[in-house]
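Researcher: Let's walk through a ligand-bound prediction step by step. First, I give you the protein sequence. Second, the SMILES string for S-adenosylmethionine. Third, you return the three-dimensional complex as structure tokens. Ready?
Model: Ready.
Researcher: Here are steps one and two:
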Amino acid sequence: MSAAGEFEIFLVTAPGLEAALLDEAREKRFRDPKIIKGGVTVRGGWPEVWRANLELRGAARVLARIAEFRAMHVAQLDKRAHKVAWGEILRADQPFRVEASCKASRIYHEGAAAQRITKAITDTVGAPVADDAAIAIKARIDDDLCTISIDTSGESLHKRGHKQAVAKAPMRENLAALFLRQCGFDGAEPVVDPMCGSGTFVIEAAEIAAGLKPGRSRRFAFEQLASFDSAAWNRMRGNAEKRSVDVRFHGSDRDAGAVAMSRANAERAGVASLTAFKQQAISDLTPPEGKPGLVIANPPYGGRIGDRKQLNALYRALGQTLLATFGGWRVGIITNEAPLAEATGLPFQAPGDPVSHGGIKVRLFQTRPLP
Ligand SMILES: C[S@@+](CC[C@H](N)C(=O)[O-])C[C@H]1O[C@@H](n2cnc3c(N)ncnc32)[C@H](O)[C@@H]1O
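Model: Step three, the predicted complex:
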């Protein structure tokens, strides 16, 4: 940590979406954003850490890098870990846990490394250790360089705190937000998701349009740190911009349960008045009245061999409906197999980078406005 209380803040996201997150970090005026594998680094102090957790839609978690030093052997790790200003960061009454990883380093025993850092913290702050503690300290020893970070988010940031009901294979909210961004969505056009499941794309789009902060309803691990200032945080969180929205966000799904879930999720997120959901199969899809916008969906993915014919037919039906009735609309389809995207017959541009989603590599296929 620098004298001015500044440090590196690591915004974690799914590999493949770093550039989209960089774009968001720039737009939201985070300082000195740079891409590294699996995320973006920015610089700042604790207020930027809170703001990153509150405002960034594309991050999965926010790590504060609080110390960095060389450690050639465990005695050195022990000594240098004791010098970290733990008392400024951790509270004596809040349990913590340490996770260590070692790569290409003389210290290779991860358990021993974690144990030294744990002892440094208990010696200096006296905080209790617990395997299920909300506060996780992450030590990475790479090429004899030890980097210590705190996970300031706690539960993954894709959990906005509004969704109780989840359909099969839901899209993570932070990925949905970044795919919307990659499709050029800025909140000013209507969105249609014709296979909306639990409504993730539709609700994210409506929240973006309304200028709602993604972390407005949830708690974060940083609230348990010594560096936390609840008055400053409440000012930051309460400072919500309210935008009036003149477009609407539409979801449909052939599954009645999915539609009910989407409605309940939109209600809890406070965007029910901006969204409309209905039970409908792809073959009955028609564009909403008004100006064109973006159709975005992650249809069922390819996988089991027996599904192949059905999946091809589903993607073909989707493409046919869109080509016949959605002139002027752009389309973004997230899927794991290029042949399925091709089966739509839609004029896709080159696909985006592969993104790992629940262990499956998916890509965004998008079109320009359809003729
Ligand atoms: C992978 S899920 C979408 C998940 C969604 N993006 C979410 O975040 O919850 C695919 C959805 O497509 C729906 N679906 C499958 N075939 C359909 C069809 N012919 N017409 C409409 N919806 C369909 C399924 O019911 C399922 O909810």
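Researcher: And what stands out?
Model: Residues 330 and 369 are 4 Å apart (CA to CA). Residues 167, 169-171, 195-198, 200-201, 253-255, 258, 281-282, 298-300, 314 surround S-adenosylmethionine (CB under 6 Å).
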